[in-house]
Design goal:
By secondary structure, this protein is α/β, with parallel strands linked by helices. The chain is 40% helix and 12% strand. The chain contains 17 helices and 14 strands. The chain has helices at 3-9, 21-35, 47-57, 87-109, 128-134, 147-157, 198-208, 222-232, 269-275, 295-308, 334-337, 350-354, 368-377, 390-400, 417-428, 431-451, 456-468, and strands at 12-16, 40-46, 64-65, 68-73, 118-121, 139-143, 215-218, 239-240, 282-286, 312-315, 342-345, 359-364, 381-383, 404-406. The strands form 2 sheets. It has an 8-stranded mixed β-sheet with strand order 3-4-2-1-5-6-7-8. The protein has a 6-stranded parallel β-sheet with strand order 11-10-9-12-13-14, sandwiched between helices. Helix 6 crosses helix 7 (198-208), helix 10 (295-308) packs across helix 15 and helix 15 (417-428) crosses helix 16 (431-451). The radius of gyration is 22 Å and the shape is globular. The two termini are 40 Å apart. The structure holds Genistin and uridine-5'-diphosphate. Genistin binds next to helix 2, helix 4 and helix 7. Uridine-5'-diphosphate (UDP) binds next to helix 2, helix 12 and helix 13. It holds the Pfam family UDPGT. Keywords: Cytoplasm, Glycosyltransferase, Transferase. InterPro entries: UDP_glucos_trans (IPR002213), UDP_glycos_trans_CS (IPR035595).
Length: 483
């Protein structure tokens, strides 16, 4: 047997992730922490990732990320398929083709699959648990959003609490461990006007068969979401093992390498530009890898940035599938009129940007990875959520973590540049700004503690490794235990 194969046989865990950057990177970082405790780790995802990595680096496709082997399976569609526009169809085909393709990958790469300690999946590819069952391997889930979302979906899809309906769309939702939530605070998928029919189906199936997952790990930390984590202990506990962000953001050894994939090439020139700006002066603006803002909202942000006359760094990622209505594009006047004020890049080295001393605050779509990276950088946020978990993440920022303000939409769903300007001033100067900055710094310190030896997240990783390797308890399928 070849040496690599031999290695795969012992103490091996296979992670499986949906193809989005924000899903793969936390999985890889979990992998890194398992590897630090002697586990061999591989990550399987769909072919599109190999294709994007190849395009972004220009070099041959990477087959390893700092010791984690990357494996790819087909989602059943061609590489240029527009999955974002046809999300329902895409998720349906992935759910049908994924299991057999992943199963074939396992057969091909592992001479005795049964020896795998466990498969770790994420909530967007829940069918991985069936593949695990086929080989009699235990399965864990890494919940990649706040634990609050885990609690909301669990209660919603098991019908344990009342949620808005077509006849009562404006009801206030009250859940243990969480503040009261209005409809704009709830994840878009639980609202009666959610356009993605496949999502409730996927999640109601998932949450009704949680027993398929022997462990639920979370990309969060106990001290950040204490009440809601405690509220799940009696139902189906979640063990936070985060924040799963680059080690440099956690004050960890600078030598430690990050485990992540880059699907887009980042423009490093913005770091040089940041270095020329005064401390705590720059507004960083990004909406992540998936959101494409309508032209009107691009215009409102552009106008606000120009009017506040502060330095800015704005990531404008060209839409993968451009539309004639100008969605996701800068207004034509913007670059010329702000050329001495700020920088626009197509993709930034975000974690380096957030931890740069010149950066003062972050206007964000509230993707959970971006939020964790900001928490670990100790700066305040301006929340401008769009869909999925983002509205709830914005609620957490404002009312639970108290590290930011939210851009409120007008009645017609649009935003005005004046509202954005007001939010910027609020987080930049005055007593509110000062308090937000203090809270943000306190959370940053907390985040560093939990991942250090003996911290709550480090302990949860240690326990998980003990359990999968059978060091402390038998592999008897027993329910996962609380923290
Ligand atoms: O829900 C989905 C679906 C989906 C799944 C099933 C279905 O039937 C319909 C749609 C596909 O891609 C996503 C990608 C996401 O990326 C990003 O993932 C981060 C971590 O989950 C989040 O925090 C960010 O808000 C988010 O943009 C977040 C999501 O919630 C989804
Ligand atoms: O210009 C950018 C914008 C985003 N990111 C990274 O992309 C991820 C985005 O994940 P998130 O969950 O915030 O949002 P998504 O893109 O999945 O909607 C984060 O790790 C960011 O650091 C980046 O490197 N450069």
């Amino acid at each position: 047997m070849a040496q690599a194969e031999e290695k795969r046989e012992e103490n091996h865990v296979l992670l499986v992730a949906f193809s989005s950057q924000g899903h793969i990177n936390p999985m890889l970082r979990l992998g890194k922490r398992l590897a630090a405790r002697g586990i061999h780790v591989s990550l399987a995802t769909t072919e599109i990732v190999r294709h994007r990595m190849l395009k972004s680096s220009g070099a041959g496709p990477a087959d390893h990320v700092t010791g984690i082997e990357l494996l790819f399976f087909s989602d059943g569609l061609s590489l240029d398929y527009d999955w974002k526009t046809n999300l329902d169809v895409y998720m349906d085909i992935l759910g049908k083709q994924g299991p057999s393709n992943l199963s074939a990958l396992i057969k091909e790469h592992y001479t005795s699959p049964k020896k795998l300690l466990c498969l770790v999946t994420n909530p967007f590819v829940p069918w991985v648990s069936d593949v695990a069952a086929e080989y009699n391997i235990p399965c864990a889930m890494l919940w990649i959003q706040p634990c609050a979302l885990y609690a909301i979906y669990y209660r919603c899809f098991n019908k344990l609490s009342a949620f808005p309906t077509l006849t009562d769309p404006d009801m206030i939702v009250e859940l243990p461990g969480l503040p009261s939530m209005e409809k704009e605070d709830l994840p878009s998928f639980v609202l009666p006007n959610n356009p993605f029919g496949s999502f409730p189906k996927l999640f109601s199936e998932l949450f009704q068969v949680m027993e398929k997952f022997k462990w639920v790990l979370g990309n969060s930390f106990y001290e950040l979401e204490k009440h809601v984590i405690d509220s799940m202990c009696e139902l189906y506990p979640i063990r936070p093992t985060g924040p799963l962000v680059p080690p440099t953001l956690l004050g960890q050894d600078q030598e430690l390498e990050d485990a992540s994939v880059d699907m887009w090439k980042s423009d490093e020139t913005c770091i040089e530009w940041l270095t020329q700006q005064p401390p705590s002066s720059v507004i960083y603006v990004s909406f992540g890898s998936i959101v494409v803002l309508p032209a009107k909202q691009m215009e409102a942000i552009a106008t606000a940035l120009k009017n506040v006359k502060r330095p800015f760094l704005w990531v404008v990622k060209p839409p993968e599938f451009p539309t004639p209505d100008g969605a996701g594009q800068l207004p034509s006047w913007f670059l010329e009129e702000t050329k001495d004020q700020g920088q626009v890049v197509r993709w930034s080295p975000q974690t380096r940007v957030l931890s740069h001393p010149a950066v003062a605050c972050f206007i964000t779509h509230c993707g959970w990875n971006s939020m964790l990276e900001t928490i670990c950088s100790g700066i305040p946020l301006i929340a401008y959520p769009q869909w999925t978990d983002q509205p709830t993440n914005a609620k957490l920022i404002v009312d639970v973590f108290k590290i930011g303000v939210r851009i409120k939409k007008e009645g017609d769903g649009n935003i005005s540049s004046e509202v954005i300007e007001k939010c910027i001033e609020e987080v930049m100067v005055g007593p509110v700004a000062e308090q937000l900055r203090k809270n943000a710094m306190a959370l940053k310190a907390e985040a560093q503690k939990v991942v250090a030896a003996g911290g709550s997240s480090d302990e949860n990783i240690r326990l998980f490794v003990e359990e999968i390797t059978g060091d402390s308890c038998k592999k008897d399928g027993s329910r996962n235990v609380g923290i």
